[in-house]
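Notes from the 1:1 (GR / supervisor)

We went over the backlog. Supervisor wanted to see one worked example end to end before approving the batch request, so GR pasted a single chain during the call. The sequence is below; no edits were made to it. Supervisor asked that the structure be written out right there so they could see what the output format looks like.
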Amino acid sequence: MYHYVLLMQTIQLAHQQDFREQGAKCALNSTRWNIHQAELQTLAQAQRLYFTALYLHGLQELAKTSHENNLQLLEILENQLNAGEVTAADVAIVRVDTTSTQQQQQLAAANFQNALRDLARHVGMQPISLRDISGDLEQFRWQLPNIAISNLESSQDEWNHAVLNSTNSVVGWAKSRPDVMAARSDVDVSRANLGLASASKTPDLQVGPYYQSTADSTTFLGLRAQMDLPIVNNGEPLERQRLAEYHQRTTAWNQTQRRAELEALAAMDRYADTLVIIQSNTSDQPYSDLPAELKGLEKEFLAGEVDIVRVVQARNSLILNHRARLDLLNELSQAAATLVGATGIPFESILQTSSP
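Structure output shown during the call:
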């Protein structure tokens, strides 16, 4: 009975398996860096939503204080109207103002609750489980990255030098941002694929023993080797394709890195500009207690030192001053969150952990 048995082993002479393993490892690294990038953006967005909630909470407290002051002032004026000490026009002015502040308070409360729901959904909580939030924008002490500067008593040159050092620091962080590193890993994947394509130009060698028995009982034992001749398919088209892909991935990596640097510079400029405004206002116009100031106006009015028009104007000025302060603090906190998302810099490096 004729039968033929052949056992073949493929031997890759150009170490193609090493390039396959290298490409797989780089692809895994790219996936891990993409996960880190998603985590970074999730963290930065959570910080934005948290600071937005604090800002809206401050507006709610501001509207609440203003409305309570109007109610007290309206009650005083109504009593004085009954005593014939003030005119009905004065009472009408405060009554209209009280209605306005009541609506502002209701709107501020609704906006604050919406901000809490957005924050809860982003961090994976039930929207109804987050009813309030702790923290105060005024309590945060910001600084340049890893440079504690609490005031502007230093010269402008020293401040500019500190900003320059911080800018260089965040640009360095941006170059190692997760999406940049993922693009770099894609370059390594394309380089491994190029090496595999070049190695595949060397044909594989198939070698192994064989056993053959013919019909006339003749037995053959031997060793067989087989290799394709690279004549029709020499592997050069695939190599050129992998080379083009490598150049494409390299260009994409350079573009991603440059974009990260520009985003870091823009975020740093925004943060530094807002920080210097905050510190200037802190040194020149200290942030005071709004309820105490409104009480002071009320006492002056009861003492007859100012009329109701002056009281209303002064109260509006105080409220606008505190609103502007909250707007500045919100802009600084949002700029800080943007800086973290654009560079991947640790949040602790721009926030003082101890009291100045």
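Supervisor's comment: The chain has one domain: 3-215+232-349.
Batch request approved.
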